[in-house]
Model the fold of this input.
Amino acid sequence: MIASFKGFASYALNLAFPSSCVHCGREGELLCHTCIAESTAVPANVCRKCAESLTKAGTCARCIAERSSLDRLYGSYMYDSPVGSAIKAFKFDDIRALGPVLGSLFNTEGLLRSEADLVVPVPLHSSRVRSRGYNQSELFRQLSARRLGVDFLSGVLIRAHSTVPQTEQPTAVARQRSLAGAFEVGSGKPGSAAGDVVGRWILLVDDVTTGSTAKSCASVLKSAGADWVGVAALAVQPIGGFK
Done:
């Protein structure tokens, strides 16, 4: 209840007093048009599963060696850009009015070609939802599903145990190991039983991804019977930048 009230108050204040851009400080907008224009879009020549830079679009050697269960990553912006700053403010500074602004920035051109028939958010552990008051990926999932005109369900994928945030993991290997057993297919809400994933083409939605979390989620969904799993992320941070 307290978290809900805090969220409503935060959202109302942000709407009533959008004092400045969270990245550059310009008056009038929470994320100004200049900062959006200066944000780096994900280039065409990247790995289709982790967004690692390549000489031409394809699948990188690491993803091939890992036999990644993830079929496709659709990224909109690079995390090291003004959009990344806005995502941080949205998640950690409780500026919830940024939600619709950021949601509108998803590049849906690729998503429309994905042929996904079910949209699922990357889940947070219940303890983190309680402390934060909301799951930012859940908000983005709702917006994306409406824009794509496909089904969306909550509770299909659950976070079975809490993990150290991926941004705090020291290496790429540590990121992947920390996610072992972290996700399960469940029935958290009516109509979201494990059977809902069988034969489905599922699009995960996340705010930021290195690919590690999406690959772990995809592996669980594929094991439960999903035919195809992709992820739509507003921002990507290629894991190749980590040791």
In short: The domain at 2-241 is CATH 3.40.50 (Rossmann fold). The first helix runs from residue 2 to 16. The beta strands are 72-78, 118-121, 151-152, 157-159, 183-185, 201-209, 228-236.
